[in-house]
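Run log // design_07
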């Protein structure tokens, strides 16, 4: 799949995201998952990487997904129905969170069980803070997705907080690393939820999965 989109494709994606997009349910266990009747795109990443902010920016809604400066705010799989075309799934952050180890382990198990076994999961967007690049926990998730043959793409967040030269350096390092990961898409999507950078392109990528 190419990330080059025509003006028409960008406009169609804009219309899709300007239409209905509703919070559907929060899933705390696999038994609560909805019927696998539409394509699903999951948003994964370390705690406080900006998953909820990105969902809000994509949909043009400030409070669709709850955001917080406190890592670990999202504690379940939050489902959003995008125009009856696809589900977007905002996942609990992995890594640091101010909760008990037991609670954190429960979230991690839920995330991994979901990612391994969801038949209609089309792609996992792994969000990486552009100021920091890959962390060990990101690589662990990528290896697991490689093993289960689940496609994933790297999304750089908070690019407005990094100078162009720094962004290029991080992007090049990520692209180089992806060459060793079979299920990873060989490119990055640079975004800024605050400034809107990369949002039209990411909408078009998402919309293509819902065709």
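design_07 sequence
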């Amino acid at each position: 799949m190419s990330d080059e989109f025509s003006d028409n494709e960008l406009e169609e994606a804009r219309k899709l995201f300007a239409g209905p997009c509703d919070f559907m349910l929060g899933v705390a266990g696999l038994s609560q998952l909805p019927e696998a009747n539409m394509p699903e795109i999951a948003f994964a990443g370390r705690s406080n990487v900006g998953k909820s902010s990105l969902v809000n920016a994509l949909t043009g809604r400030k409070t669709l997904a709850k955001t917080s400066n406190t890592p670990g705010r999202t504690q379940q799989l939050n489902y959003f129905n995008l125009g009856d075309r696809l589900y977007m799934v905002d996942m609990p952050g992995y890594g640091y969170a101010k909760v008990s180890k037991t609670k954190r382990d429960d979230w991690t198990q839920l995330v991994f069980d979901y990612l391994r076994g969801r038949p209609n999961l089309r792609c996992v967007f792994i969000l990486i803070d552009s100021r920091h690049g890959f962390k060990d926990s990101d690589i662990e998730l990528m290896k697991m997705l490689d093993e289960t043959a689940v496609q994933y793409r790297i999304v750089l967040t908070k690019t407005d907080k990094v100078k162009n030269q720094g962004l290029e350096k991080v992007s090049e390092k990520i692209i180089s690393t992806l060459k060793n990961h079979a299920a990873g898409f060989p490119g990055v999507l640079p975004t800024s939820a605050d400034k809107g950078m990369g949002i039209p392109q990411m909408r078009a990528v998402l919309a293509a999965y819902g065709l």
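Residues 68-73 have pLDDT under 50 and may be disordered.
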